[in-house]
Amino acid sequence: MNQDLQEPMAEIMPNIITAMSYLLQRVSETNDHLSQKQSISGFHGITKPSISIRSYLERIFKYANCSHSCYIVAYIYLDRFIKKQPFLLINSFSVHRFIITSVLVSAKFMDDL
């Protein structure tokens, strides 16, 4: 019975990673076109990372060993950040740093004892 519960979660996580990467890709591409209104922060890199958002999330998923709920909470944190900081946009220069930060914070909140 326990194995039956684990198999659906294994199928859901790649879908969550796919959905999260798709949404963040759309947000970053949309915000790339609004460069005149953007503020620069410590999250912004000088160049765009060569790794895709999906590959980056898959890599975090593979090596971070976070619980499944961490990725959902990480996306909620990013969504709240976007609403609270409308002039600090997530774009191609900052999305990777925002992803790792939100996953780290959510793992600390969800997984640490």
UniProtKB/TrEMBL annotation:
InterPro entries: Cyclin-like_sf, Cyclin_P/U, Cyclin_PHO80-like. It comes from Brassica campestris. GO terms for molecular function: protein kinase binding. GO terms for biological process: cell division. This is Cyclin. Belongs to the cyclin family. Cyclin U/P subfamily. Keywords: Cell cycle, Cell division, Cyclin. Transmembrane segments: none annotated. It comes from the Eukaryota.
